[in-house]
Amino acid sequence: MFRKASLAGPALLMVILGAAVSYGQQQPPAAPISSGAHEFPAVMRQNVVAGATAVGTKVQARLVIATLVDGVVIPRDAVLSGEVTESVAKTKSDSSRLAIRLDSAQWKNGSAPIKAYLTAWYYPPEPLAEQNLAYHPDSSQSPKGWNGAGTYPDPNNPASQPFPGRDINKDQGPEPASPASSISKHRLLMKNVDATRQDDGAVILTSAHSNIKLDKVTTYVLVSGTPPVVN
Questions:
Q1: Residue 144 — φ and ψ, nearest 5°?
Q2: Residue among 45, 189, 23, 197 at smallest CA distance from 117
Q3: How many of the other CB atoms lie within 10 Å of CB of 59?
Q4: With 0-12 CB in 10 A as exposed, 13-18 as middle and 19+ as buried, what is 196?
Q5: Strand partners, 204
Q6: 169 half-sphere exposure, CB direction, 13 A CA radius
Q7: What is the pLDDT along the chain (231 residues), one digit of tens a residue?
Q8: Which residue in 4, 62, 168, 219 has a CA-CA distance of 20 to 30 Å to 30?
């Protein structure tokens, strides 16, 4: 009986190690940024579409996380400015192509020159925590007055209303801050998008599947120096 147990030990260990290797293959880690590069996670301030946004179009992005470059801290929400350097729509025979270069960073009390290129990486948003909006049975108020914000609106008290009225100008006020706390700590690759680096360091994104599109809510990764390139 003891001999059988001793043989089962190595066999069980091999099964555990095999499962660990299989899991590691299913969950590959994000490629590291080169030690000589600077990463700029940023949200575009305009939509960009390969083939529709012309080469030379000026673009801007808001920095999501403060970045140290050559001894200078570029703060969160700094405005990164640059231009579209390549923009080609997908055809039956050719892939979509898009390249963006950012040349400067500006913030309230300073500015700095940079040379960062759009890569195929992005940071997905963190899933929102589930909220409990159920009516509390101990409340003396009618559940019909429950507004989901934790209070019951008083029609005689405008301050208790949970949402602004229609006469409020939605465009007033400063631009909201970058959602640094709401993005994942792990980068992902854009689906069906490849990246190649040119001799001058520029990065060009290509897609044989569809036109490459950038929106104003996704945190894209721009990198100076030696970016992580996926072939």
A1: -65, -20
A2: 197
A3: 20
A4: middle
A5: 196
A6: 4
A7: 444 444 445 444 444 344 443 333 333 334 444 446 789 999 999 999 999 999 999 999 999 999 998 888 999 999 999 999 999 999 999 999 999 999 999 999 999 999 999 999 999 987 765 555 555 555 444 445 433 334 444 555 554 444 343 443 443 344 544 455 578 888 899 999 999 998 888 999 999 999 999 999 999 999 987 545 444
A8: 62
